[in-house]
Design goal:
Layout (H helix, E strand, L loop, with lengths): L9 H15 L4 H7 L4 E10 L5 E10 L7 E8 L4 H17 L5 E8 L7 H15 L8 E5 L5 H15 L23 H17 L7 E5 L3 H12 L3 E7 L2 E4 L6 H11 L9 E3 L1 H5 L5 E4 L18 E3 L8 H10 L2 E3 L1 H4 L2 H15 L5 H26 L3 H20 L4
Parallel strand pairs: 3-4, 3-5, 6-7, 6-10, 10-11, 11-12
Antiparallel strand pairs: 1-2, 2-4, 7-8, 8-9
Length: about 425
């Protein structure tokens, strides 16, 4: 069973969130004009020879929103619903996200409109390499550094790194992050997003005096971020009462066995039919009576039509843009505590930064070093956002945007305009 996805325009949401935060911080018009919009937008045609010998044309995008604080950074997604506006929104959010955790990157994003579930490994490789060739003028370890996103993985990054390196004549592992360990990837990168979500949930529970042990959790989306978050919460003693993916939703009020569910997902590709659970409609997961809701799927999953049914005290945005502005306002009025995406899921880009640093230094860290550094970054960023939230009496999303936008604005004002 596939969850219905709202058609709200993600870029409109990104622009509204920017304007709300910019108004709250009284940002001047000139600075807004310099930092609000993407620096570069590339649309490319990606012809691919399919396994049956036919040629099929796909459309791909790469958007660089900002490079004022460092190289642009952002994932590449393969999904049937990828659009230029979605990629622009995701690139914009990446700029603020990197600034919130104070790493020296700007925001970028890429994508191809395709359905990877109906493509062979060979077709995916040929598409990835052709797309990489098309965006070569934009990417590089000092310009723009792609990473995995929806339906892309370390193998995808290996193809991109190899294609880029072949054009330069020598291996350049720093052109992408999220690579296999054998090609210069970082230990801890695969679980970084979910681990970052877990750290921010720990902070939110401490702030709200909610014991994490025994807390009830519903996870919407059981991909990389959702499954890692669920596993870490399970290990911390929380009860994961519901999990959904694109095939359906499983529920057990007494808690699901998350390690077994992860094993089943790995073997079968879905959560539907998990033993010791009952099926519920994916939309019903949003309305479950629980302490923590983790939207870890796609954008706009909580919106004006279903936000009033949310009963969770904490909403931890493991996905990018899972709440519309209307949903934000409804949840704020209900007293829910939202950990906004540009803070909550910033663990992925933080460890991507760690990987890039290791590649550039040719010196690699132990996994525990990565975890310790990530925990310090995420909890420090949470404290910075929470302070703005409490001092200015604004919602957490506005507080996070004030922090991120403020750091980008400062960099732009200091650099000025050339020529």
């Amino acid at each position: 069973m596939i969850t219905t996805i709202r058609k709200d325009n993600a870029y409109d949401v990104a622009m509204e969130n920017f304007d709300t935060a910019a108004d709250a911080m009284q940002l001047d018009h000139n600075t807004r004009e310099m930092i609000k919009y993407p620096e570069r937008m590339l649309t490319v045609t990606v012809p691919v020879r399919m396994d049956d010998g036919s040629i099929r044309r796909f459309e791909g995008y790469r958007v660089q929103h900002s490079s004022c604080r460092g190289p642009a950074k952002g994932g590449i997604r393969f999904h049937p619903q990828v659009t230029l506006d979605e990629v622009k929104a995701l690139a914009t959010w990446m700029t603020w996200k990197c600034a919130v955790v104070n790493i020296p990157f700007g925001g970028a994003k890429g994508g191809i409109t395709c359905d990877p579930k109906h493509m062979s490994q060979g077709e995916l490789e040929r598409m990835t390499r052709r797309y990489t060739s098309a965006i070569l003028p934009l990417i590089g370890p000092e310009q723009d550094i792609p990473a995995p996103d929806v339906y892309t993985n370390s193998q995808t990054m290996a193809w991109i790194m190899d294609t880029y390196s072949m054009t330069k004549g020598y291996s350049i592992p720093g052109v992408v992050t999220g690579k296999p360990i054998s090609l210069g990837g970082s230990l801890g990168r695969n679980e970084a997003t979910g681990r970052g979500v877990f750290y921010t949930i720990q902070c939110a529970c401490e702030h709200l005096n909610i014991p994490l042990k025994g807390a009830t959790v519903a996870v919407q989306g059981f991909g990389n971020a959702g499954s890692v978050t669920a596993q870490l919460l399970y290990e911390a003693g929380a009860k994961i009462i519901a999990v959904s993916d694109s095939t359906g939703c499983v529920f057990n009020r007494d808690g699901l066995d998350i390690p077994e569910l992860i094993n089943m997902k790995a073997m079968c590709g879905h959560v539907d039919g998990f033993p010791d659970s009952e099926p519920i409609h994916p939309q019903d997961l949003i309305a479950l009576n629980c302490d923590i809701l983790v939207p870890a799927a796609l954008e706009n999953m909580v919106h004006a039509d279903n936000a009033r049914s949310v009963r969770a005290r904490i909403i931890a945005e493991a996905a990018n843009g899972p709440l519309t502005p209307e949903a934000d306002r409804i949840l704020e009025s209900k007293g829910a505590f939202v950990i906004p995406d540009i803070l909550c899921n910033a663990g992925g880009v933080t460890v991507s930064y760690f990987e890039w640093v290791q590649d550039e230094q040719h010196l690699f860290w132990e996994a525990q070093d990565v975890y310790n550094r990530l925990e310090r970054v995420m909890k420090s960023a949470f404290r910075d956002v929470l302070k703005i939230h409490l001092d200015k009496k604004v919602p957490m999303r506005i507080a996070a945007n004030i922090l991120g936008i403020g750091r980008v604005a400062e960099a732009v004002q200091i650099r000025g305009i050339y020529p």
